[in-house]
Description:
Blueprint: H1 2-30, E1 48-51, E2 54-57, E3 69-72, E4 81-84
Antiparallel strand pairs: 1-2, 3-4
Amino acid sequence: xxxxxxxxxxxxxxxxxxxxxxxVILYFAYSGTYTVQxxxxxxxxxxHITVNNATFHAETFGSDTNPVVIVLHGGPVMITGIFWI
Length: 85
């Protein structure tokens, strides 16, 4: 029984080392230089709206006579909501 436990432990440690090595190799193989897209503050040609002196990136769809739907996503508190104005 003791030999089986030692054998099992060696295989388990070997698999963990293999997985950790594979993770490190794949991490460096697929890591690259990714740039963050410019915001409205750096590129005013992006479609935007200004509400109460705050500028937001905006996309508009549909008719001007339909109700406005504003969708907020993410944020520090990770609250997502849909507000009807």
